[in-house]
Amino acid sequence: MKSKIPKFKSEAEEAAFWDGHEVTEFLDELEEDTSTVFVRPENGVIELGSAVWRRVLLEAKRRRTTPQRLVQRWLKERLTEIG
Description:
With 83 residues, the chain is mainly alpha-helical. Helix content is 47%, strand content 10%. It has a domain at 16-23 and 34-82. It is built from three helices and two strands. Strands 1-2 form a two-stranded antiparallel sheet. α2 crosses α3 (67-82). The longest helix has 16 residues, at 67-82. It is globular and about 45 Å long. The termini are far apart.
């Protein structure tokens, strides 16, 4: 199976590609990454796998916000839902 994700010559080329595509179009091509990324917000530490962190970065970029603000919004929404 040929990859639908092209090989990029630069970060700018990669950014332009992801600006026009959703990561969910390529889930079957993503590999699990077991390394860990530590996010150190002002009031705590959240540990995420690097694959999750990459998806958060892409979604934040798509929404034109920071990853920290996006995760805070998601957590507040979810905590409101569950009471």
